[in-house]
Amino acid sequence: MESGMIKKGAIFCLISLLSACTLSPHPLSVSDRYNEATKDLKELFAEQEPSYGHLDFYEALARALKYNLDYRIKRVNSALQAGQLKVALFAMYPALNVSGSIYNRNNQYSSSGVSASGAPSGVFNSTPNTIRSLRTGLSWNILDFGLGYVKAKQQGERLLIADEEARKQIQQLSQDVLVAYWSAYSAQQLMKEVHEFQKILGSAKIKLARAMLDKTIPQENILNYEAALLEGNRRLIELQYKYDKATLDLKHLLNLPANLKLTLSAPPLVLRKANNLSALDFRKLDAITLVNRPELRGQNYQQRIAKWGIKTVILQSLPGITLNKGWNYNSNEFLLNKNWMDRSVDVAWNLLNLASLPDSYRAADTQVQYEQLKLMALTMTALTETRYAYSHYETLRREYTIAHKQTENANALFTLNRNRHSASLASEQQVILAKLHTLTTKMDEDLLLSDLSTSLGELYSSAGFDILPIDIANRPLKEVTYLIGQNFSLQDTWNFSNYVDVSYKKIFVEGTQNKPLLARSSHSGFNEPFTIQLYRADNLQDVKRKQKSLNLQNTYCAVTQNKGKNWYILVFGNYPTRKLAYATIEKFPRDVKELSPWAKETQGLIRLT
What we know:
Blueprint: H1 2-20, H2 30-44, E1 54-55, H3 57-67, H4 69-90, E2 95-104, E3 109-114, E4 120-127, E5 130-141, H5 142-213, H6 219-254, E6 263-264, H7 282-292, H8 294-316, E7 320-330, E8 339-348, H9 351-355, H10 357-422, H11 428-462, H12 477-491, H13 496-509, E9 530-537, H14 540-550, E10 555-562, E11 565-575, H15 578-585, H16 590-593, E12 598-601, E13 606-607
Helix pairs in contact: 3-5, 3-12, 4-5, 5-6, 5-8, 5-11, 6-11, 7-10, 7-13, 8-10, 10-11
């Protein structure tokens, strides 16, 4: 009876203890939420260089490349996939297992028996009260090795997909920054004229109030005048909102504080001129698109993952063979051998996997066909997008030409009405309406120029061109800004048709089918076939002294051999064509031109710094 009470008491105590250990969720308090949000807000801008409000287009792109949160997520995803690839590789290795135990009992483990003749043999002790054991061994499942190899290959493809997604993100980011910067800059310029127009409206409102009291003025004229003023005020409010929205969009993309006051410089010339694309070769453009577009390359990798899935299905239907080998220790003092090695071979075969092999194989093969169809659909979409981008650009180019003439016409009309008003030949109402018409036509022209620049970016993006070099995000902001400026200065000397021709030559003419020549001289440290030679000497120190005296960025020391002798060369920049190199030479300062710089092939050069 007493024993039963004790057991019930113990059970009750155990239940009470388990009940006390149950967990219930606790929502965050208002204070917790606010503190966490404040902490996140501080970390949001902690690791980036501050902006002082004056921004040009190159720095805007550089800041987006380094600090945009969406792009940083893609970069972290690439790092995550790379880490998971390293983890997947370990699945192919044998398992190294270490196990040990300490066993203790409160009495002797004794036994008795009888001899063959039936006589009692007495009591035997074969195990001490405390036993310590240890085993270290290798275990390698050959089937797991095969599956681990396949999964590692699939993870490698996922890493490549993550890289392509990062490329696509940076292309989209470049496009978004282009749109937001143009919109904010256009609105910023218009706001300067808006402030002047507000003064005109202010004085006009005073005159309107007086006119409404004058019974000699026709009521219809007063109402028309008031309607013009109200329309002007409404358009000013619209302009102010567009300016605020465009500026906030740009700050969001660049990860800048919302209360920072921005002053934007004019976009580069390459974004403010209309390209004539009549010489565009669509055959070359299509070929470049098919090998460059991130979506197509990512889908190719996805198809390869599906093909590896077929191998996974086949491997899973095979028997698993496990090889074991280990070293053992046991502290039992009654054992003759306390240390020993063991080895074994285990075979296990899940026959259900074998029975389901036909269905599993068909499912995996269907997955391959599915990915192939997606690739075909993406291919058609990509080629269509290049045609659409071209047609959109040409339409906007023609429309912008007309809009520019409309702005000139509106300016001329406003000047005429202002002069006539000064000569008392036109009413102030006509001047205000003309000024309002000038503002609206100028706004339309700027918006069209912004759309034209955006459509050019879409054309580059539709062909898979990387507007920003993806591998420079970890460099300092000033260096990234400079490199982007160099890249756009390069594009300023040619149009999109030239870009297509040069890119096609690099990929399909100078390269090979399996290894496009996007890094033709990578063995030499140069990525383009031409550079600019500034100075040459047979001593490296002389070249470095000259490099220091010129104080030019983007210069490198290189070495080449001539008749068995080393020649050290100071070179500048890296260019896909000789023409572009000579175009850069024309922009050099006078002291640099006095060195007689010339375009030199990078073949045979080895970059030292």
